[in-house]
Amino acid sequence: MKTFASLVEEVQKPGLCHLCGGCLTFCTAINYGALEMGENGMPYLSDMEKCIECGLCYSICPEIKELDDDIRKIGDWSEPLGCIMETHVARATDPGIRQNAIDGGVVTGLLLHLFEEGRIDGAIVTKPSGRFQREPWLAITRDEIAASAGFYFDTSHGMKRFLNGYSIYTPPTQKLQSMIQQGLRKVALVGMPCQITAIRKIEALGVLPSDSIHYCLGLFCSGNFIFGPEQQEKLAEIGAFKLENVKKMNVKETFLVHLKDGETKSIPLERLDFMKRPACRFCADYAAEFADISCGGIGAPDGHTSVIIRTSTGRKLFNDACGQTIELYNAKDNAALTAKVLKQIEAASSAKKRLAAKHRQTLHKAK
Fold it and tell me: What residues contact residue 360 under an 8 Å CB cut-off, 6+ apart?
């Protein structure tokens, strides 16, 4: 039986841990708590007496492949980009949501629709916790869901103890503990590709509380970035801007820094490798291939979101929300636009897969 000790050897030591929070969160279905987050950001075995060596943490790790066939069946996954039922360009109908959102606010619009229709009791998202920072959040009111819109350089819930350890990465899976304690049985989760993968593996095993996660909304991911003082200084130097003048940031085809005076700085993503977390170099999933709906800014006109519908659950949600809390892009030839968007998503996904394969090959040679 593979245990957490196996994860340390196979995942942590080679630098492959995504810090998705899955092993820590689901340690024997959130009942035993043998694992804790270390000062270096990695989960560690804090109490060997509590570990029953069930192997759950090992099985659900995104880096472990033993459940890959199962989650592919769940998501009807196929090459090269997972299941794609439909592609859309859309935005939230609420101007207030759009004002706070980085792209079109579609994820927030979908969550609000679910909440207002009584189809969820809450949503596991992130919320602002400081300048360029966010933290995991279990939103259980309309206002809390609305307040989750936006993109920041974030600090994860487990990384708050870090000295200058800022990152855009937040493991929302850690909020499943709060969900259970509050007795919520209908929840939507917004997460990065690796986080969605961990949730799907729990679903494949039929382990609680996977039955309470009714919707998985995935975010396109070029990588997550460390944003300490050194990284901030270098980023400002590359982009020729001052941090105090930044209004918002987002990732599309490039890294965009929107300044308070209306100017936008565009920085090629390859120039941000110095900020990227080590494990992101080995991740091949750009478009959250196991989500119900995947969203991001790439390819979409300003103020809009590119959307991939992946499951029947996602399609029903999107169709129900259209005309309510979200609206499709108003273009004479929308079919041409969505085809272009999908092509750009495919290109970004292929580039990430190639880069991940290259880095893994280098890692294997180094062993």
Answer: 282
